[in-house]
Amino acid sequence: MTMIKVDELKEIIKMLDQSSIHVVELEDRGAKVVIRKADRQPPAGNAVPEQTERLPETTLRQSANAKIPAEQHSPLPNPAAESKRADQQGSLQPIASPMVGTFYSKPEPNEPSFVKPGDKVKPDTIVCIIEAMKLFNEIEAEITGELVEVLVRDGELVEYGQPLFLVKAE
Length: 170
Hints:
The model is unreliable at 57-65 and 68-74 (pLDDT under 50). Helices cover 19% and strands 30% of the residues.
């Protein structure tokens, strides 16, 4: 199965933005991607979006009452500790997430990770997969060096620009 790469999606979005076309639909082997141009003007009056999805009230109440486990609480940033870590890292370069999605270190749950600390990586080395909107995007290192640290766990949600790995650049 061929996966659409992040760079290809970015190029399609750029072409859509520069054209008068408002919607692009791509379909390949059961996978479908729909990209719509956003309206640049705020809706007039009391406009209601075409589709609204409502969660059942019980789900909303459960979400509001849900407790966040202590391990998910992040402490306040400590600039002194961060600068000390930066000094220790020296020439370490992050590989950052190019999108919001779910991080996977392995191609399949029962297979080994794409990379592990100590592995040599090249710009075209696939280091992980990020699932976004049911699309599995292979993420390449885009740097040459030695992988030093994996910063996220399998199945963890990642943000755009979030460091995923640290690489000692060559």
